Amino acid sequence: MISSDVINAKIDLVDQNIRLIEELKEQGYESFSKNFRDVQAAKHCLQESIEACLDIGNHIIAEKGFRRGEDYKDIFSVIEEEGIIDAGLSARLQEMAQFRNLLVHQYGRIDTRRLFIIMSKDLTDVEEFIKSILSYIS
């Protein structure tokens, strides 16, 4: 059985992280890129948000008995196959999962400009995922 408590706790975490990322990006790229603490905070918030989305996907997959994802990217493919998200969102979230792998395994090679672009343009994908999940479980 899908636990709304588990899902809602992850969603709350995503919401908190997105609020902080929104604050950080308000200062603009030049100021942001010069502040080590802000860059590190943004990396962590983004990584944690992506991981929370992956955890939500895994929880639904496990509880519904769907095909297990072969890797992090595939979690979003499974969620798409089951009609929970559309193909376009799935593809964008798979790219986010790849970026999460960079944040975790190649953290010293993260391009600050790319990070800022993701902060500025791609958070709507996370928000769309959350809306789709809430619609699915309600």
Look at the structure and give the CATH class.
Mainly Alpha
Sum up the overall morphology in one term.
elongated
* Number of DSSP strand runs: 0
Supply the number of helical segments.
Answer: 7
Secondary-structure-derived class: mainly alpha
CATH architecture: Up-down Bundle
Describe what you observe in this structure.
This protein has one domain (4-137): bsu32300-like (Four Helix Bundle (Hemerythrin (Met), subunit A), Up-down Bundle), CATH 1.20.120.580. It is 80% helix and 0% strand. It has seven helices and no strands. It has helices spanning 4-25, 29-33, 36-64, 72-81, 87-105, 112-121, 123-137. The model has no long low-confidence stretch (mean pLDDT 96).
